[in-house]
Every structure is written in structure tokens, then in C-alpha cells.
Design a protein that fits this description.
This protein is an alpha+beta fold and 81 residues long. The chain contains four helices and four strands, in the order βαβαββαα. 33% of the residues lie in helices and 22% in strands. The strands form two sheets. A two-stranded parallel ribbon has the order 1-2.
């Protein structure tokens, strides 16, 4: 059944787990769905930092960025993060 899935949406799926469990879940998702599209909604940067693109939102604006750019504190300060 997993081979038939091309898009998976995960909405805060790791919000209530410790960081070790979060990494385990993310590693499993990357392995099982490596040929598909994964849309992850999360508040923790660690959860999405290995994604290809990250959508950063605030009340004032939003942008799509590469993970390396999101790690730059001056970039995040534009969003009040």
C-alpha cells in the first residue's frame, strides 16, 4: 500500500514527542516516501530542516526558502522568529 502513495501530509505529527522520537519518525518518512512528496506542517525547525524547501509564515508575510537560508538568524528575524 505504501508504494501507491505519492503525496503524504503530516500536520504536527511529532508535536508531542521528544526529539529522538521526532528524528526516528522523520528518518522513517524520508526512507518510506523518498520518491513521493511530503508536506510537513511543524513548528520545530529540526522537524523540517532536511526538507527540500521550507515555507516560513508569520502574520506579516510568508516565503519559500532553502533549509540553509532558514538557519540564518538574520533571515528568521524578518519573520519575528
Amino acid at each position: 500500500m505504501l508504494e501507491l502513495i505519492s503525496v503524504i501530509v503530516m500536520d504536527e505529527c511529532t508535536a508531542n514527542v521528544d526529539s529522538g522520537t521526532d528524528r526516528l519518525i522523520q528518518d522513517s518518512v524520508r526512507t518510506q516516501f523518498r520518491d513521493g512528496t511530503v508536506l510537513t506542517i511543524a513548528h520545530r525547525l529540526d522537524t523540517v530542516i532536511t526538507n527540500d524547501r521550507i515555507l516560513v509564515r508569520s502574520k506579516r508575510s510568508r516565503t519559500i526558502a532553502l533549509p540553509g537560508r532558514v538557519l540564518n538568524p538574520s533571515y528568521l528575524s524578518k519573520f519575528g522568529v
